[in-house]
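Q: A reviewer asked whether we had any structural model of the full assembly, not just the individual parts. We don't, so I'm hoping you can provide one. Inputs are below.
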Amino acid sequence: MQKSKKIVVLGHFGVGKTSLIRRFVTDTFSDNYKVTIGVHITKKVVEISVENEVSLILWDLEGTDDIATIRNSYLLGTHGAVFVFDVSRPSTFEHLKDDLKIISDKMPKVPLMVVGNKSDLVTESELKEVLDEQEISVDFLTSAKTGKEVNTLFLKLATLLTTDA
Amino acid sequence: MLDTYQKKYTNNNRQFVLIDKTGIVLESDQTLMKIAFGHSIFELHPFFESLTSVFESKEEVNFYGIHIPFEDQLFIVDIKAAPVKEGLLLILKDLTEHYNSYQKITQTRNESVIKTELTVLKNQELAERERFKNSFIQNFSHELRNPLTSIMAIIEILGDTEMTNEQLQMLDFLKESNTNLRLMLEDTLSIGMIDAGQLQIQKGVFDLHKFFELLIFTYKAKAKEKGLKFDCLWDEKIPKLVEGDRLRLYQIVTNLIDNALKYTEQGSIQFDVKLNQKRANIVNLRFEVTDTGVGISEENKDAIFESFRQVKSNGTTKGVGLGLTIAKKLLLLMNSTIKMQSTLGEGSKFYFDLSFEYPLFTDSNSELSSKARRPKIEAKHLDQKKYKILLVEDDTYVQTTLFKILLNTNRFKIDLAYDGALVLQEVVTNNYDLILMDVNLPNLDGNQITRLIRDFPFKNIKNTPIIGITANAYEESIAECLKAGMQKVLTKPFEKDDLLKLIYKILK
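A: Here is a predicted structure for the entire assembly that you could use as a starting point for your response.
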């Protein structure tokens, strides 16, 4: 039987949440930045293994400077969460620890993936510098532009959710 | 009849939908979307699949800005989900227009924030690169000071030996090349110091007329060598004694005249000083350097003031291209600006205005004239004994050079030490008349050793005069040496005469 899992994708504005989902769902990318207002919801069925499919309902939330202002109704019934930051813009990850604390307080038992997006915009050494500065380990370094690690991220989360279930 | 009008003017942007606990549509007023009764609402859009959690919460929940594409239209709606006895009542409020205009405003705002942030980051990166470049140039220049000091000293020592005319001529070339190299090094260091904010304008009273005479003396000969004419004219109303930074003014003016000389193959170079204004005890002067050289094209007019940029003359470049940059930056420090007029093929004029304080009452200028004279190196006042000097230096080139300079005078007996422990051992067992101390030593540096010597309980040791030798020409470094207890500090590269003059003065 196919299960449905709600995944919220959140983070500061302009970090590439919509692009990550678009890359995952339709395998496309656009350089044009279009601000998301409210929430866009899409669905993709993922095959974890033979006879084990999961329907991921992806909630692409409006980006915000202050994670605390995210409406609780958006998070209702969430199974998994993805926090996205932009590796090329320090303002999107300089309060990473605080942001993650707010999220885990709002959704205490929900598995959370921490993702540094736009990895194509920085060099390996700059990326290392960014990661070394963080006290929290980053789960994935993705590029919605090149597709790097995007499928792996969502597949891993889907697997984690179906295993937990 | 009234119903028709009511429908027209009543807000019709809300749709009421009733679903059961499995999501089957029981009723819908179809105001916005035509939803099929008896079918699961989950099929309409993935949003509705998430409503199962509302059934569990049993409380009214509001969702905002939900994007629902229906047929050929996109609705952006706020949805109220209220648990009722039949299942769930959904009230969809169409706010597409409102959200679209909000989107436009947010788009502009976010783009602007991101653009500003990326610009700041880019500027920080450029500033970081600039700092790295300056620090590299500074360190590299400092490293050059040691070998340059040795070359200069050895040239001078060689000059005192028997040589053929041909050898003397070659030595002259060598000396000139070394001097050029030293000047370039000084320019590079000056730029670094200005950029790092470590150069400060130091005012003092000086004789402006003598300043002009010195320039005439220096540049008439230089211009003549190149077949050019050099003239310096100044307004007689310009006060003789003014208060300003003579050294930096000299650096600005000589850089401009040197630049004119460099790019003029025939004709003349004119240095004029005019009186702009004289009020209370402030005099404002205009300095102009005019040449009949190659001139500067429009596209090069900004570039010539950038570090390490030069205009090619006859297909070649000359020097390191720092002269005009230094002049421009020094003038900025003095709250002035360099200006330029130039015509390609005809020549250029560089000019600037500077204000000076001028004392209305002065006793005499005898002190100034005596300062201008280069004192001869005299050691007659010293005893005929051989003075004992401890040379503390770890660089073998500098060791050799200093040994030669000092031993050639036949006035000194030299001991050598190259680290702190050895110095302390030597000063205890020997009674030195003077210590020449390199500042940059491994383990204990020159300042630390000096402090230890000054802390000795024995007067003959603690009072030994110490001259510091350093490649670091920064004011704060020199101040630190003096604070540690050194009498004087000599910066590399120095000339033989400077060193001997200082030693004789201190031994006196």
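A: Points you may want to mention in the reply: The domain at 3-164 of chain A is CATH 3.40.50.300 (Rossmann fold). Strands of chain A lie at 3-11, 39-49, 52-61, 80-86, 112-117, 140-141.
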